[in-house]
Amino acid sequence: KPYKCSECETSFISSSNFICHQRVHTRERPCRCPQCGKSFTNYFAFIYHFQVHKGEHSYMCPDCGKSFARISTLIQ
Length: 76
What we know:
single chain; alpha+beta; Double Stranded RNA Binding Domain; two-stranded antiparallel sheet; 3 helices
């Protein structure tokens, strides 16, 4: 694995995963939500969060009919 973290010695195959991992140590959070100001280490975490603000409720409970933005919330 060509990318090795000098802080904790974790190795990565891709440079993008390595860069995201380094943010754990630097606490850099470059992706900021324009709605609430919460910040994230990577774009995908931001997109996952932003679904809450968009009001998209794609997951419907077959028992009660309520809909949720995240499947993890539906399962709870």
